[in-house]
């Protein structure tokens, strides 16, 4: 998969679908050559056309006025040494300089994919699955090495990247920026697709043209955030869901990140992705190294649906881990929207008793069971049962006796001022002595850069998990980081705390999943505030939004689906009027939206009418029958929730023997719109029977002729679901 042409000095990373090429140019600069569909060989355009460009400098000691770092497509550019575009690496040395100029030194090709210590990452199950190139560059003035790592998967259009800098000098220096990757591209008419949002409105797919200047997608919240997902895709102008080229980048990281897109003086593109360098500075002592998180790069020639398919498979099969990775996920009932923290033992028992005959498989007890917590003003950090409120053994036993699994909510990274932990260890909080601490939801953030703080929480959680039979954990995180400062570190290391904090979070998760391999973990951060590939490495599910309004969920789930596999996207039916929007949607619509993800309920089953209970039974039975297809099939967006009134999504089994088609209409109109939905990725030669009408259609027919919806169907927020099964 990876070769080096000694004569042309070209590295070629190719598999059957993609090629990625770069060369070693004069002076040892690494120059990007090509990224796209596989080419059989490379014969030529080795030298990028060179121009003597005004105000673009040349290499020291070189008389060649056409050779400039400022317009060369580079693999990883330095700072303040001739490339005026955004740098990938900035290092502050003893003399105060921030210059970096790394030149080629050596390379190594390795079978498989080396592990990154303490960081989430994609992995291989055998060395045949991938090959890795490590290119070492050196800056002789700083006396530092830079290792750029590229892994190409054999059977996927995927290249992962990361970077590591090693201090080979006798003095400490400060890494102020180290991108996980850089991608420089020749001028072309591209668009950018990305996923901005906010609390309750996460991952809203947006597309914009790319113009000269810099556009930044980032987070400085200490979390990947609701507000911007660590994902970006550069697409051809004519790319849509089904056609066209896509170059997508996803950071496997849950902390402060920055993805910058620069279009330079001649409209060349530079994409940089990595830890956010704002407020970042990492002291590197002689002999030490600093490792960046990983970036996953996906290339699709089949539009955005093509990209999605690659991400879904990779994240599900080679980022998510553990016993639950390939297992069908249980149908949950969570008490949060039903009771919030106002519950007692009798109420919980009633929820379990009502849920059991409906076929629901797991009861999750959300916030409010610990310390003396009855509202969100206290007790975070006190992970022991509020025995005045409930007997947790009893709740777990009742749930298990009902034949259901039992899940519990934690928010391990947080602390309330009103808690025993705070009384004992006020210094455990991220804060700067002498400065007021910003409150959010009336809580503070524990300093997870300190191992003893992580140990304290680990021990408390283990005590509960060793004592009570728990099958599932919902891991919440309800505020962002402020006053990021740690009493445990010296002044010259305070720029490390945000990253050290997230490494502490990862270490706690790793210890817990290792010790409790049977537990199913679901991440959450006030909904989807940390829905990223980093957390997926530890937890195969994520609650994508607190917003359970079926209409709003269409966009949230569709945006999330761009990258994250449907087995990881959870969706619950809640009561109406919706708590966030006050919108009323039908029980069927709510069920059909939630069933197009990993399904559950978040309501009081005792408040359901008999007719609604009957619907729950039907939904549960339908979902159990089809969940393998929803959670592990291929997902396609046919008609988008972002652009129209009519939405359609499809799941197809890997062998194309069955498919599920979910169709939604937002608003009704007397126009009686005629809507035709063409299915996708079926086998044209197979025949399929529609479970709703009993009619048999050819796959070719469903894909080319399509299906009509009933235009006379009245009412807002309606849905139709068709299951297609191959018939001979
Ligand atoms: C925010 C979560 O997203 C909700 O689902 C719920 O768990 C609350 N936190 C509990 O405080």
From TrEMBL:
InterPro entries the record matches: Aldolase_TIM (IPR013785), Alpga-gal_N_sf (IPR038417), Alpha-glycosidase_related (IPR050985), GH (IPR017853), Glyco_hydro_27/36_CS (IPR000111), Glyco_hydro_36 (IPR002252), Glyco_hydro_36_C (IPR031705), Glyco_hydro_36_N (IPR031704)
GO process terms (BP): carbohydrate catabolic process
Residue ranges constituting the Glycosyl hydrolase family 36 N-terminal domain according to the UniProt record: 28-285
Domain of life: Bacteria
Swiss-Prot/TrEMBL keywords: Glycosidase, Hydrolase
Pfam families: Glyco_hydro_36C, Glyco_hydro_36N, Melibiase
Domain Glycosyl hydrolase family 36 C-terminal: 647-724
EC number: 3.2.1.22
Catalytic activity, reaction form: Hydrolysis of terminal, non-reducing alpha-D-galactose residues in alpha-D-galactosides, including galactose oligosaccharides, galactomannans and galactolipids
PROSITE patterns reported for this sequence: ALPHA_GALACTOSIDASE
GO molecular function, one term: alpha-galactosidase activity
Annotated active site: 476 (nucleophile), 546 (proton donor)
PANTHER family: ALPHA-GALACTOSIDASE C-RELATED (PTHR43053:SF3), GLYCOSIDASE FAMILY 31 (PTHR43053)
UniProt family annotation: Belongs to the glycosyl hydrolase 36 family.
Stated name of the protein: Alpha-galactosidase
Species: Lactobacillus psittaci DSM 15354
């Amino acid at each position: 998969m990876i070769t080096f042409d000694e004569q042309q000095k070209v590295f070629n990373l190719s598999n059957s679908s993609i090629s990625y090429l770069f060369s070693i140019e004069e002076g040892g600069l690494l120059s990007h050559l090509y990224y796209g569909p596989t080419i059989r060989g490379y014969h030529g355009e080795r030298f990028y056309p060179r121009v003597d460009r005004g105000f673009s400098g040349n290499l020291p000691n070189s008389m060649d006025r056409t050779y400039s770092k400022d317009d060369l497509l580079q693999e990883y550019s330095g700072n303040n040494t001739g490339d005026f575009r955004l740098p990938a690496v900035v290092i502050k040395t003893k003399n105060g300089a921030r210059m970096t100029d790394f030149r080629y030194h050596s390379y190594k090709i390795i079978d498989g994919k080396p592990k990154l210590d303490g960081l989430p990452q994609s992995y291989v199950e055998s060395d045949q699955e991938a090959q890795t190139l490590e290119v070492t560059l050196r800056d002789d003035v700083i006396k530092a090495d830079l290792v750029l790592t590229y892994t190409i998967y054999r059977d996927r259009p995927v290249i992962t990247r990361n970077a590591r800098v090693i201090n080979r000098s006798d003095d400490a220096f400060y890494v102020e920026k180290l991108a996980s990757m850089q991608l420089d591209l020749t001028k072309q008419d591209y668009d950018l697709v990305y996923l901005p949002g906010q609390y309750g409105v996460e991952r809203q797919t947006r597309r914009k043209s790319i113009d000269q200047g810099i556009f930044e997608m980032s987070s400085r919240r200490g979390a990947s955030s609701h507000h911007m997902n660590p994902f970006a895709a550069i697409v051809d102008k004519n790319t849509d869901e089904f056609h066209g080229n896509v170059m997508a980048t996803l950071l496997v990281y849950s902390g402060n990140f920055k993805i910058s897109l620069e279009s330079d003086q001649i409209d060349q593109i530079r994409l940089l992705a990595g830890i956010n360098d704002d407020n970042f500075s990492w002291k590197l002592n002689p002999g030490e190294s600093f490792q960046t998180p990983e970036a996953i790069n996906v290339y699709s020639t089949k539009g955005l649906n093509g990209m999605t398919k690659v991400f879904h498979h990779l994240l599900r099969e080679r980022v998510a881990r553990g016993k639950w990775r390939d297992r069908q996920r249980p149908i949950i009932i969570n008490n949060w929207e039903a009771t919030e923290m106002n519950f007692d033992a009798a109420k919980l028992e009633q929820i379990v008793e009502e849920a059991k005959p409906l076929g629901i498989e797991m009861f999750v007890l959300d916030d409010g069971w610990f310390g003396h917590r009855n509202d969100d003003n206290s007790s975070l950090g006190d992970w022991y049962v509020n025995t005045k409120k409930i007997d947790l053994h009893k709740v777990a036993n009742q749930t298990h006796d009902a034949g259901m699994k039992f899940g519990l909510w934690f928010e391990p990274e947080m602390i309330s001022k009103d808690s025993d932990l705070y009384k004992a260890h006020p210094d455990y909080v991220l804060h700067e002595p002498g400065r007021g601490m910003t409150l959010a939801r009336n809580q503070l953030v524990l300093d997870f850069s300190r191992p003893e703080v992580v140990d304290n929480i680990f021990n408390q959680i283990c005590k509960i998990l060793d004592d009570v039979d728990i099958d599932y954990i919902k891991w919440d995180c309800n505020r962002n980081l402020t006053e990021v400062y740690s009493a445990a570190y010296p002044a010259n290391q305070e720029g490390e705390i945000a990253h050290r904090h997230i490494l502490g979070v990862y270490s706690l998760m790793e210890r817990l999943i290792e010790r409790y391999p049977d537990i199913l973990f679901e991440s959450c951060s006030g909904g989807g505030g940390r829905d990223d590939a980093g957390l997926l490495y530890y937890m195969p599910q994520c609650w994508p939004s607190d917003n359970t309004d079926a209409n709003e969920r269409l966009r949230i789930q569709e945006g999330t689906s761009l990258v994250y596999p449907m087995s990881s996207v959870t969706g619950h039916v809640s009561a109406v009027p919706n708590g966030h929007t006050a919108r009323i949607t039908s029980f069927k619509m709510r069920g059909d939206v939630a069933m197009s993800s990993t399904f559950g309920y978040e309501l009081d089953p005792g408040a359901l009418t008999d007719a609604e209970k009957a619907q729950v039974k039907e939904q549960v039975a339908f979902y159990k029958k089809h969940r393998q297809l929803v959670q592990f099939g291929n997902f396609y967006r046919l008609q988008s929730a972002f652009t129209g009134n009519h939405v359609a999504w499809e799941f197809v089994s890997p062998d194309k023997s069955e498919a599920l088609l979910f169709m939604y209409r937002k608003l009704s109109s007397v126009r009686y719109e005629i809507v035709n939905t063409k299915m996708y990725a079926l086998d044209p030669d197979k025949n399929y029977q529609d479970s709703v009408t009993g009619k048999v259609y050819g796959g070719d027919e469903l894909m080319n002729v399509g299906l009509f919806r009933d235009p006379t169907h009245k009412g807002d927020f309606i849905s139709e679901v068709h299951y297609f099964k191959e018939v001979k």
